[in-house]
């Protein structure tokens, strides 16, 4: 019995030794099984040095209790007298609950940790084969496998071998296990073994000699017939052997399982035959294989079965692997695979995902493999299946910067060590960092972090993940700059040919021009060139993420040339984290935004201001424009200033739209496309109204002074009045005037005509700024009618002659500039026309439907695909807008919420009023938003307006990227557009045509 004082002393010592539950540890030490060693200070110190002293002590007690009476003293005497066994055994017990369970079930296996010969320190494949040689059935194989695994884990946790050696030993053990399993399968079916030749090709981490503790072992099977035998029967026999081999390793028995053998990397995956001949493999790879299959073959290694057949397979596929980078869409395919991997991680696990998450192991592996495939065509020194060996070879060859390679090497080793220790605990396949405090503490201590293991672990993990995130893109680009800058004599660097291959593989269509741009930007010893060399590796990665990297780089050179001498430009990009990425997105997304920026490069400052991309109010815009016009010496100078404001604000709007559509590393893409459309429509409409107000002020003040002889108002109609203007939209307007008191009507009309002509002239003067076209064709009588009318003339016309389509056109009328009181009276005048009391009669409804049907048949451009025309095509803008407008004209008289000029607001109001079911309203809204975004995208990409998808592949890809479609998925974009608009047209047929 322990006295209180002694117990207290033991309690404190256990606590200091790292036990988290000293009371339970004291009880375990008092157990009968440890009676002979419980007071030995060496044992307690050794337990305290393990990753989890509590777990190690529990495992030791279980192991001692499982020994026979004769064997237990041998175990305990050896434990306290032999440091190698003590460190190995307790180290394993403190790191792996699963191996502790194995030792409790197989208590004599502790002897596997006693020997300390040179071969035992670094066993190879032969030693593992010897260790499995006596296993003649699946259960015995599992026991022998765990015994060998026990020795690997002991060397690992004691630091005898590093993480790369551990992974290589695990791969050797897997190779020996596959050979033993094939031996067992062949012994069970000797006739099948005699009837075929079978080679087992290891893939993935096993093939690359970098296996985890618990991982699927990826394989491919190659079969053939012995001399003169029937090939079909040989393949059938080989398939039975291969299937049995897989079951031997994968099935769960009383001794558990070893690991799943996964043959899904074979041609056609799980849909293809398990075993093929070499000729069948080659025929598939030469004709049908996808890029990812060649990337997987990087690690192919013959490991079991017929060695000659395995060697023939490797010799045959190796040339195909190193030609993969020449395939069409090679880089796009690789990047798409990476994105798909990341996209498939549940959101709740992304931050804990050690392998597949951002800054994880897969980032390093994908980057290294991509560079191997690109440069391995001409450099056989890169032909390695091991990630770390390949990284070393890339650095030695100048394909990767040495400092970058060293940092990635350290990060990869740390992350792999974390992965190993996480899996070792329960021998379960996982890549998730645990959340439980005790698990994190054990993990940290197992990696040598003893002071504050949890805090130190999290800090180190985040630091290494950050290094990977920061470097894995730079890995591609930094050597390109070294190749053109040529600053450090004697440093190994990329040859021009290798640099060109690198750029081409990363999506640059004109590598020679790209290298010239890099040389112009980064060469020299100036401070400017030094900053560019810091920026460009990241910028090039962002350009490559776009549909047109060449244009992004060219535009960046132009902006840099224009602003390179200003002190703030490069400092902004270097110091303001978001500015550089925002600029890269804007410069590579199409022509419009870069064109706007080139005319006033100083607008790049907006990209570094957290509030710089927010929309400005109509009042603020109009105030700035009118002030600029007021300061000008002439009408031309005034409107030039107004158009300059418009250019800058169009750039602000376009840049914000692009950045929110693409997303950035720190800010995901906007999830609500309707919000993007509304933001652009409102911003461009407000900007257009302010510009027109400025042109009106300039035209009046420089010809008539402060006051025009007639009161004058401009009414926005169409998309302008609906706050739905796109980047390429004209401004549809009506002009209304009212002679001032004492002014002759003829003189007033003449003044009104003159001011309109002057406004149009000023807004279309040839300058570097985009023109603003004013279109008045929606006025009464169209082009045949007078350009401007008095308010009383409008009233008389609408009273006597107004047609239904003219009333419909007025649904989106809103006063936008000029005399506000006159504009308000005009709106008051037209309200009874656009919102007729008691709604529309049947004749009016029929007339609207007839006009719509005629427009569909006559106005669609010849040769245009009606399923892809955003304005007039099936389920496009016209379909949705006419349907909504018909509902407004029928019901707005009794439903005030329908009295809005905005399509989406009216659609929501119709649903709220019970006039459209929720599902149909959603379908119409989705189609309208998508068609509007396509039009905006076309203008952003091509720099000119269009109602159809671009035919040029790169432009179409850029439209797709803006809409959120990854590279290589434009087919999905077109399919989605057709599907969404087809559903919208069905709703239109129901609601508009009454079908």
Describe the model.
With 995 residues, this protein is mainly alpha-helical. It is built from 44 helices and ten strands. Strands 1, 2, 3, 4 and 5 form a five-stranded mixed sheet that branches. Strands 6, 7, 8, 9 and 10 form a five-stranded mixed sheet that branches. Strand 7, helix 35 and strand 8 form a beta-alpha-beta unit. Helix 5 (71-81) packs across helix 6 and helix 29 crosses helix 32. The chain is elongated. The N and C termini lie far apart (94 Å). Mean pLDDT is 91; it is low at 1-6.
Q: What is the C-alpha radius of gyration, as a whole number of Å?
A: 37 Å
Continuous helix count: 44
Characterize the largest beta sheet: strand count, sense, and whether it forms a barrel: 5 strands, mixed
Uncertain residue segments:
1-6
What's the shape? elongated
* Alpha-beta classification: mainly alpha
**Count of extended strands:** 10
Task: List the main descriptive attributes of the protein structure presented here.
995 residues; mainly alpha; 5-stranded mixed beta sheet
Could you write a compact summary of the structure shown?
The chain is mainly alpha-helical and 995 residues long. β7, α35 (745-763) and β8 (774-775) form a beta-alpha-beta unit. The longest helix is centred in the middle third of the chain and has 33 residues, at 453-485.
């Amino acid at each position: 019995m322990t006295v209180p004082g002694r117990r207290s002393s033991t309690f404190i010592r256990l606590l200091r030794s790292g036990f988290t539950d000293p009371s339970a540890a004291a009880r375990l030490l008092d157990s009968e099984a440890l009676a002979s060693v419980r007071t030995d200070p060496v044992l307690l110190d050794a337990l305290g040095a393990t990753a989890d002293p509590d777990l190690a002590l529990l495992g030791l007690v279980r192991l001692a209790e499982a020994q026979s009476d004769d064997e237990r003293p041998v175990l305990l005497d050896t434990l306290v007298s032999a440091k190698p066994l003590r460190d190995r055994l307790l180290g394993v017990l403190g790191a792996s609950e699963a191996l502790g369970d194995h030792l409790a079930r197989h208590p004599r296996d502790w002897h596997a940790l006693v020997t300390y010969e040179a071969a035992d320190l670094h066993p190879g494949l032969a030693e593992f084969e010897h260790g499995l040689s006596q296993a003649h059935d699946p259960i015995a194989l599992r026991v022998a496998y765990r015994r060998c695994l026990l020795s690997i884990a002991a060397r690992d946790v004691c630091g005898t071998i590093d993480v790369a050696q551990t992974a290589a030993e695990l791969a050797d053990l897997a190779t020996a296990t596959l050979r033993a399993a094939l031996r067992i399968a062949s012994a069970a079916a000797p006739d099948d073994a005699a009837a075929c030749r079978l080679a087992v090709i290891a893939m993935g981490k096993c093939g690359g000699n970098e296996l985890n503790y618990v991982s699927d072992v990826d394989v491919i099977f190659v079969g053939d017939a012995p001399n003169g035998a029937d090939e079909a029967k040989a393949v059938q026999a080989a398939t039975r052997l291969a299937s049995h081999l897989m079951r031997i390793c994968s099935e769960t028995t009383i001794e558990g399982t070893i690991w799943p053998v996964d043959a899904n990397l074979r041609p056609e995956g799980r849909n293809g035959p398990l075993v093929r001949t070499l000729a069948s493999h080659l025929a598939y790879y030469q004709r049908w294989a996808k890029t990812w299959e060649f990337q997987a073959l990087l690690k192919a290694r013959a490991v079991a079965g017929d060695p000659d057949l395995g060697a023939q397979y490797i010799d045959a596929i190796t040339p195909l692997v190193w030609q993969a980078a020449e395939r069409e869409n090679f880089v796009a395919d690789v990047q798409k695979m990476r994105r798909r991997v990341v996209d498939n991680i549940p959101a709740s696990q992304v931050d804990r995902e050690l392998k597949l998450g951002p800054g994880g192991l897969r980032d390093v592996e994908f980057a290294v493999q991509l560079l191997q495939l690109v440069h391995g065509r001409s450099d056989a020194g890169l032909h390695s299946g091991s990630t770390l060996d390949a990284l070393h070879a890339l650095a030695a060859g100048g394909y990767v910067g040495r400092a970058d390679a060293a940092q990635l090497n350290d990060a990869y080793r740390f992350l792999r060590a974390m992965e190993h220790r996480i899996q070792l605990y329960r021998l379960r396949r996982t890549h998730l960092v645990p959340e439980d405090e005790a698990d994190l503490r054990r993990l940290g201590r197992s990696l040598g972090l003893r002071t504050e293991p949890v805090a130190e672990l999290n800090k180190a993990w985040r630091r290494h993940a950050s290094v990977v995130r920061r470097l894995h893109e730079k890995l591609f680009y930094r050597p390109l700059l070294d190749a053109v800058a040529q600053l450090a004599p004697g440093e190994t660097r990329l040859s021009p040919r290798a640099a060109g291959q690198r750029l081409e593989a990363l999506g640059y269509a004109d590598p020679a021009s790209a290298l010239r741009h890099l040389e112009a930007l980064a060469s020299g010893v100036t401070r400017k060139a030094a900053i560019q060399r810091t920026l460009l590796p990241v910028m090039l990665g962002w350009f490559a993420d776009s549909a047109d990297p060449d244009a992004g780089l060219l535009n960046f050179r132009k902006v840099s040339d224009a602003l390179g001498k200003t002190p703030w430009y490069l400092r902004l990009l270097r110091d303001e984290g978001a500015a550089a990425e925002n600029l890269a997105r804007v410069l590579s997304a199409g022509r419009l935004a870069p064109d706007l920026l080139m005319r006033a490069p100083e607008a790049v400052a907006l990209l570094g201001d957290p509030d710089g991309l927010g929309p400005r109010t109509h009042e603020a815009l109009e105030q700035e424009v009118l002030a600029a016009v007021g300061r000008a010496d002439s009408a031309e100078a005034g409107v030039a200033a107004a158009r300059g404001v418009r250019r800058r604000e169009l750039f602000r709007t376009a840049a914000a739209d692009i950045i929110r559509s693409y997303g950035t590393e720190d800010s995901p893409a906007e999830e609500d496309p309707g919000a993007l459309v509304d933001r652009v429509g409102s911003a461009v409409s407000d900007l257009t109204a302010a510009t027109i107000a400025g042109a009106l002020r300039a035209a009046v003040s420089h010809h008539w002074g402060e006051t025009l002889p007639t009161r004058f108002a401009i009414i926005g109609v169409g998309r302008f009045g609906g706050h739905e203007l796109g980047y390429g939209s004209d401004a549809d307007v009506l002009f209304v005037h009212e002679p001032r008191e004492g002014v002759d009507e003829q003189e007033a009309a003449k003044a009104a005509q003159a001011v309109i002509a002057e406004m149009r002239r000023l807004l279309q003067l040839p300058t570097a700024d985009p023109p603003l076209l004013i279109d008045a064709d929606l006025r009464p009588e169209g082009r045949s009618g007078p350009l401007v009318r008095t308010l009383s003339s409008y009233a008389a016309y609408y009273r006597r002659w107004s047609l239904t389509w003219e009333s419909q056109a007025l649904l989106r009328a809103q006063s936008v500039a000029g005399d506000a009181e006159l504009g308000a009276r005009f709106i008051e005048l037209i309200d009874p026309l656009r919102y007729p009391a008691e709604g529309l009669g049947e004749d009016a409804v029929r007339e609207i439907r007839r006009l719509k049907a005629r427009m569909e048949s006559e106005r669609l451009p010849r040769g245009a695909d009606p399923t892809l025309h955003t304005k007039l095509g099936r389920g496009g803008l016209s379909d949705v807008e006419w349907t909504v407008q018909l509902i407004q004209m029928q019901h707005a008289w009794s439903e005030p919420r329908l009295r809005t000029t905005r399509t989406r607001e009216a659609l929501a109001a119709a649903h709220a009023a019970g006039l459209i079911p929720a599902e149909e309203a959603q379908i119409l809204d989705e189609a309208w938003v998508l068609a509007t975004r396509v039009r905006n995208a076309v203008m952003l990409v091509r720099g000119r307006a269009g109602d159809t998808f671009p035919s040029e592949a790169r432009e179409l890809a850029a439209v797709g990227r803006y809409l959120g479609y990854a590279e290589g998925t434009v087919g999905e974009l077109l399919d989605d557009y057709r599907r969404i608009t087809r559903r919208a047209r069905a709703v239109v047929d129901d609601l508009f045509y009454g079908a």
